Amino acid sequence: MRRDPGRRRGRPSSLLAARWEGPGWGDRDTLPTLPRMRGTFRRPAAAPSARSRRPEQGATVCVHGLGYIGLPTAALLADAGRQVAGCDIQPAVVALVNAGRAPFAERDLDALLARAASSGHLRAATTPSPADFHVIAVPTPLRERQRPDLSAVQAAADALAPLLRPGDTVVLESTVPVGATEALAARIATARPDLALPRRGAPAPPGCVHVAHCPERVLPGRLLEELRANDRVIGGVTPACAARAAELYAGVVQGALVLTEARMAELVKLSENAFRDVNIAFANELALLCEGFGLDPFQAIALANRHPRVRILQPGAGVGGHCIAVDPWFLVDGAPEQARLVRTAREVNDATPRRIAAKLRAAAAGFARPRITLLGLAYKPDAEDLRESPALSIALELATEGYAVTACDPFLRAAPVALAADVVEAIRTADVVGILVAHTPFRALDRALFRGKAVVDAVGLLAG
Ligand SMILES: NC(=O)c1ccc[n+]([C@@H]2O[C@H](COP(=O)([O-])OP(=O)(O)OC[C@H]3O[C@@H](n4cnc5c(N)ncnc54)[C@H](O)[C@@H]3O)[C@@H](O)[C@H]2O)c1
């Protein structure tokens, strides 16, 4: 019979009606195997509403990093009644937030920020404040040779360590390699030898600082909606750490809060994005195969997806953004021998923009002075985000080679390449049209516009 650590140590939070299920965790000399270390945070049968679930109403929060993840999180926590200090190293971001505005476009965020700023529940600064909960949501990009760059997480840890008090909680929301949350706890322990920090497999001493990983799986464009609705996996360095971190989210998250260990939460987040990357790589490879067979890849995938258990994603101009194009490398870096499929998928997707650029060049070869119009520059449909955008890299590559390139993107006001204000006119005057992003407004374009043009449709906008 396995022991229930929640019972043995007391339930994580009676107000949350949390319950540990499964085996003992973190209390053995030899570590149990991963599947046996699962813990689950279960809502009571009739879950109280978000408003009534405010166990830590008086608790203070400091959010480190006010970007796509940190800012909506800070705003939601402030709106739920917490006293939130936002911290960002960019003074311009801090000034905007204090004025009740977001530095990026996101549905309903400005209204929420304005409310939080005027109520006084959210204040931003370039330095962190002492708080019961520290939430780290800073960038975790790649450095040279596809290695994880955790310098921003380390800088945030170094900034908050002097402020920590016994019992405080540090939640790492940034996407990180497996083992990084434990490394964060160890870094804080080195900076603050006077405090007790948790260690995997060791019982938490009294007054221990809690350290947990709670990764994000939100979609920009629907950030607030998904922050509230999505299930969250919360991985603690110890069970008590996970339970404590869950209390932070209970007031704002309506999805399930599922507790596990930190390494599992790290792996789960990375595997979610690697799964999508592999599926997209498969679609991109199918597009290549179809090209050879003279078949339409979009029709092929639509027909294959009629199988009840097949769900192939769509091919495109490549994979961009700061998540799917980055996170799988964290797995490759952590286990290069084992992550062969993950690495290959990254390579297939990274090669796709070059393949599409080559198709555009080939289409342009038939014209003396080809005018190329590209539809879409953002890294994905209906977003203004240019980070790691394959479409942008194609546009820049062709422009650098001397092609007359004009881009159309209804979601962008400025871009590093010439932007056309009128998409219809830009198509009319083009010799070659590259369709790189399936923005919804493009779907309404009259197909007759494309007649007589050399069209490279990377996203299947005109398919079917
Ligand atoms: N954007 C997404 O859709 C998304 C989704 C899931 C996970 N994530 C992950 O969340 C993390 C944050 O991503 P993001 O998209 O919010 O990044 P972002 O670039 O939009 O914002 C990060 C913010 O952190 C600030 N910052 C950098 N170093 C700092 C420091 N030491 N202290 C305080 N502030 C600092 C930056 O100035 C910036 O404003 C990353 O690990 C990312 O992979 C992002």
Structural description of this entry:
The protein has helices at 5-9, 70-79, 91-98, 109-119, 151-160, 180-191, 223-229, 239-250, 262-293, 297-304, 327-334, 340-364, 390-400, 423-428, 440-443, and strands at 60-64, 83-87, 122-125, 133-136, 142-143, 147-148, 169-172, 210-213, 232-236, 257-261, 371-375, 404-408, 432-435, 454-457. With 464 residues, the chain is α/β, with parallel strands linked by helices. It folds into 2 domains: 5-255, NAD(P)-binding Rossmann-like Domain (Rossmann fold); 299-457, NAD(P)-binding Rossmann-like Domain (Rossmann fold). Strand 9 (232-236), helix 8 (239-250) and strand 10 (257-261) form a beta-alpha-beta unit. Bound molecules: nicotinamide-adenine-dinucleotide. Nicotinamide-adenine-dinucleotide (NAD) is lined by residues 64-70, 87-90, 93, 137-140, 152, 155-156, 174-175, 216, 218, 220, 322-323. Nicotinamide-adenine-dinucleotide is lined by residues 64-70, 87-90, 93, 137-140, 152, 155-156, 174-175, 216, 218, 220, 322-323.
- Could you report the average pLDDT, rounded to the nearest whole number? 89
| Rg over CA atoms | 24 Å
Principal-axis shape equals globular
- Give me the count of strands: 14
Give the biggest sheet: 8 strands, mixed
Chemical compounds bound to the protein: nicotinamide-adenine-dinucleotide
Distance between the termini: 58 Å
CATH class group of the largest domain: Alpha Beta
Supply the helix-strand structural class. Answer: alpha/beta
Could you say what the CATH topology of the largest domain is called?
Answer: Rossmann fold
Helix share of residues?
Answer: 25-40%
How many DSSP helices?
A: 15
The topology string of helices and strands comes to HEHEHHEEEEHEHEHEHEHHHHEHEHEHE
